[in-house]
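Annotated sample (chain length 212).
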Amino acid sequence: MPSSATHKANKATSTQLDACISTSRELNGARLQFAVKTSSELSDIERERIWNIFESNMHLFYTTSSFGWDPHSKKEEMFHSHARLVLCERCDDTSSGSESIPSESRIVAYTIFRFEREAKQDVVYCYELQVTEESRGLGVGKLLMGSLFDIGSRWRMKNVMLTVFKANSAASAFYKSLGFNLDPSSPGYAEEDDWQDEELDCDYVILSKSIP
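Output written by the structure step:
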């Protein structure tokens, strides 16, 4: 049962959510634009671009996991009616005199999230954080995660939560560097456990971090 805060947040427009984040940044010479959209506001080309980035980054992890590779159900999850996306477009390579790159093709990273109720707390649940290979190392992922905390703070959420495959060591290290810890709802949780410990019967963990 959603709380009043979660119910209110799920009624927020993309314009209201967009006002919570910084929409323009420059990192190491790369000009980046950020925008929040609901799943229903995405064009077909944007959906295809978002899916292609996901497939490129995650296909191997899913095919070797207990979840398996199921594009239909995954697309339903990613583009659910309650899904919100923070899209990152790279704009520094469009003014060289050559033909302009379509806006949809400039998407180089994104996060997909929902406002949810977990263990009697209002949370921002991060369903996806994806960055194209050529845009890694710029700090885009950190900015996108920061946007979730900014949005969550404005809409009175308590935590940011996410699920990560144990096999995805780069993602695990990244989230740990941001201060995420094993959530009590995670399989194999125990007070003293290091969240990197292996659990033979489960190939993922749930992480969380409080929103200041």
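Annotation: The longest strand covers residues 107-118.
Annotation: Helices lie at 4-10, 14-18, 44-63, 71-78, 140-154, 169-177.
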